[in-house]
Write a structure and sequence with these properties.
The protein is an alpha/beta fold. The protein has nine helices and 14 strands. The relative contact order is 0.18.
Length: 264
């Protein structure tokens, strides 16, 4: 493969190690990309409110696609570039339908830099400024960049309900997942792939000049658009099957392996 003009990478499970760190080797690899004049874009399910620490670890700058494509964030200016929320009426309808399907469902709302959750929703990123209340109250108080669903007891899989939830949403919303116990819902037409294509167009970069790294099903739209898709070895089976190349795991600096080859 020729040297890409755009390197797009997921964070958790892909660029970030299992202990939450970014290795020195990976930081050096990202610097190679930027030194060569290519664009680095982080493409993550993470909300902007938990980006600062990771961005500081990578040392990278520029743009990040957050919340699975619903929000684009300027890392240099700490500002939101675009924000596309899930329609409130649709979100309220979906929560009612999902709770009928999964009675022990617990909901949370990512809303730009704000976060709200039901008391039974256990989050991996506690927020001292969070709002806690019933999902109806939360959705009426803040636009949903992303609606989150998990069972009241964290760790219990939602895999059995995922397909049914996606079927309920139909074309009204985009349903995806980045872990076995969490379902993530965004507005219609929103995905990592769509947001990445829009950024690439702004820089006059084609899909053929783009390489994308990922590990979970929410990375599949990005894989479908990019000219070359690379899965880390620890990726979900669907992601491994969709990849053009499989590299080492996130804990073995798989992203850095490929970048070092392309940017010697």
């Amino acid at each position: 493969m020729f040297r890409p003009s755009l390197v797009a990478t997921d964070l958790d499970g892909t660029l970030i190690r299992s202990d939450g760190s970014v290795s020195a080797r990976t930081r050096a690899a990202l610097r190679r990309v930027e030194a060569a004049g290519a664009l680095v874009v982080f493409v993550t399910g993470r909300p902007t409110r938990v980006m600062a620490e990771i961005v500081a670890q990578t040392g990278a700058s520029g743009l990040a696609i957050c919340a699975n494509g619903a929000l684009v964030y300027d890392l240099d200016n700490n500002s939101t570039v675009t924000h596309r929320a899930l329609d409130t009426t649709t979100a309220l309808w979906l929560t009612a339908e999902i709770r009928a399907l999964v009675p022990d469902a617990a909901f949370a709302v990512e809303s730009g830099t704000r976060f709200g959750r039901e008391p039974t929703f256990v989050t991996m990123w506690p927020d001292p400024h969070e709002c806690v209340g019933h999902i109806t109250e939360l959705l009426l108080a803040m636009p949903a960049t992303k609606l989150l669903v998990r069972r009241e007891l964290r760790g219990i899989t939602l895999a059995d309900a995922y397909v049914a939830i996606a079927r309920i949403a139909g074309s009204a919303a985009v349903v995806t997942t980045s872990s076995h116990d969490l379902v993530e819902i965004a507005g219609a037409g929103i995905s990592k792939g769509v947001a990445l294509a829009e950024i690439a167009a702004q820089y006059d970069i084609s899909a053929q000049r783009t390489i994308a790294f990922g590990d979970m099903p929410n990375d599949l739209p990005m894989f479908a658009w990019a000219g070359h898709a690379v899965a880390v070895a620890n990726a979900h089976p669907e992601v491994l099957a969709a990849a053009d190349e499989i590299t080492a795991s996130n804990d073995a600096d798989g992203v850095a392996h490929v970048i070092e080859r392309l940017f010697p």
